[in-house]
């Protein structure tokens, strides 16, 4: 019996026919691993502050209701950025006072709903703040409202994910001419504006740069409170963005490291005067997800072996289109779900979509793969199988949580069933076949 929980889950997925001829790609989520990450996050901040902290999971990282429910049961709330994400959080039972609404493009309807429900809102820009002025006029008990600030501390190694550059689309640019003065005035004019929000980190952003963004917003909060003559800003939302190590099983950096760095760099934020909100997503789930796919065929081209599998761009969109930024570790198993052994051979691991770049890995050293074998794309618990890309009308895979019992058996729970061909037809206008040919 394999001792590694992931190996046990792969073997059990094959034995239980979760992975089969009819379902050649499935996604697995380690329930115990998710719980452990949530506990580590809570403990990391509890170790550096006695102030209240809302850890609001970034729903975009895994918009699946059972996942949101699991995290809520582990003490986390939800950070939502669309009406759909809010609906998912509500369906999971996350209450309004554990929910935060962020988005650079909120509609009046979204703002009205958030205000009516009592959900915390982070305004992105002066025009949105003006909309809130109108909505909150005469409101006896407005919800918590904050202003998102771009600290403009710089970007990381992945340009598309760098949210604190000089020209980022998010928030009010703190270092632009006149911006700081406008922000202070906006708070003085609005007693109900009580929060500041920033998000300087994401994959590829180093911890010191993330801490610099938090420090800039803390200093702004202190300036606002001095100008207002009262403790008006009482909560700072520091966002999320802890990077994930996709190169090995080593969990670096950790929440504890980040919390200690923040406490050292911005001690005033942790002395009990400010409540905190965090918005971690990828770092909570990425390491605990695995996509399994059957090898359908093997071939060679230009003398390079190629394993053609059923997992490609539909589940690993970022990796396929930007492999340098989003490399995936690949593990090989035999047809029975046992770890495959043998001398490593450089091979391409290809997906099923009809374009040449649909590759999970290129020239990756793996034991020689054969039809019926199983490849596992590791660290895919966030932003992978939950964000289906319907290229070639490929179906969404089934998603299953798993727990390894003390006796070594594996319990599976269906998070989302596999998508059927009938469901693909239905969502593609199948009931409107003649809509464009009627006169």
Describe the protein in words.
By secondary structure, the chain is α/β, with parallel strands linked by helices. The protein has helices at 5-15, 31-46, 65-73, 83-91, 108-117, 126-136, 179-188, 207-228, 255-265, 282-285, 317-321, 421-427; strands at 25-30, 53-58, 77-80, 99-101, 120-123, 145-150, 172-173, 193-197, 235-237, 275-278, 289-301, 304-309, 330-333, 345-350, 359-366, 374-378, 398-404, 410-416. The strands form two sheets. Strands 1, 11, 12, 13, 14, 15, 16, 17 and 18 form a nine-stranded mixed sheet that branches. Strands 2-3-4-5-6-8-9-10 form an eight-stranded parallel beta barrel, surrounded by six helices. The protein is globular and about 70 Å long.
Quick tags:
alpha/beta; 12 helices; 439 residues
Rg measurement, Å: 24 Å
The profile of the biggest β sheet is:
9 strands, mixed
pLDDT average, as an integer?
Answer: 93
How many distinct beta strands?
A: 18
Categorize the overall geometry: globular
- Our count of helices gives 12
Strand content: 15-25%
Helix content: 25-40%
Terminal residue distance: 66 Å
Q: Spans of 5+ residues with little confidence (pLDDT < 50)? A: none
What order do the SSEs take from the amino end to the carboxyl end, as H and E? HEHEHEHEHEHEEHEHEHEHEEHEEEEEEH
Class computed from helices, strands and strand pairing: alpha/beta
Short description:
With about 450 residues, the chain is α/β, with parallel strands linked by helices.
